[in-house]
Design goal:
Elements lengths: L9 H11 L11 H20 L18 E5 L8 E5 L2 E5 L10 E5 L2 E10 L2 E4 L8 E5 L2 E4 L1 E3 L4 E10 L11 E2 L2 H8 L13 E6 L10 E6 L7 E8 L18 H17 L4 H21 L18 E3 L5 E3 L10
Parallel strand pairs: 11-12
Antiparallel strand pairs: 1-14, 2-3, 2-7, 3-6, 4-5, 4-8, 5-6, 9-13, 10-14, 12-13, 15-16
Helix pairs in contact: 1-4, 2-4, 4-5
Amino acid sequence: MAVTSLQLTYSEIRSRMALMMPINRSTSNWTSDMSSDVGLMIRSALRKVYYHASLGPGQPTHQWSFLRPWATLTTNAPYETGTITVVDGVVTGSGTTFPTWATNAWMVYGGKYYEVASRASGTSLTLANTATNNDASAGTEYQLLQYLIDLPSDFASLAGPMYFSPDESDTRIPLVRRGDIELRNWYQDSNRDTLASEPRFFALVKSPISQSAVDKWKLAIWPSSQQVWNFKFRYNVQMNDLDGTDQYPPGGAQHSEMILEACLAEVEYTYNDGAGPHTEKARELLMASIELDRQISEADSYGRLPVNATCPPPTVAITNNDYVIRDGYTLADYQT
């Protein structure tokens, strides 16, 4: 998709900042220290714009609509090809190609659920439980049932309910969020998992913390996946830095001037130890951008809808200050 020529770029931000700084205007002549200093200021500005934007002291932080994309998570059908042998928690497959998502699944055999700790190959898994009383003889039938799904790598938090794709769910209601400890408690009773024909509940599970990489999250579901499911959801993005490859700051051309002024305001704070004209301009543009984003993201409002309303509704007639009555309906048809 083509990018409009009015879209702000990483190169333009750096060039404009150079005009205010005691450094060479041509970025190709910058030293590594100059590039590092500019990078620090850009990152600070982006964090303030994307994560701390508000209309003033005491006002809530604005959630940018362009940082809340929709996504789909697809589960895997149960895997049960071949047979297994289990000795001291080591699972050896015969006629198997254990999938890469095996570490997000329960290994089920002998009527019990076992957590998969690691996958060495398509024929070798290791369980978290290595007790000898969990051994299984050669030729044992099994299932791998997925209960954890990797969330997008830029996932920061949910921004709404977790839905099924159209016509997949028998109940036709979104999944209900619960704590991961509660789901773990339910999974302690293997028989309970078979009482529901589709996932009913979900929890967000934090992956092990690694200070050498960004935070990662998984989605846990109960009961585990008995078939392929597609979950639709909206989430808040965990932003990455700008560079020569990722050169377009989210927001598009309509928010570009606001982002640029935020970067120039960082130059003022760094070199003047205080606010200046670019800081004030950045504030004005931020307020305008928040208002614009609200206009873009807010739903149209037509008053209260009747319980048995069809869409689109018939003609509208106003009968009092509290209700919008449509042809064929009375006040009793409306929720209050």
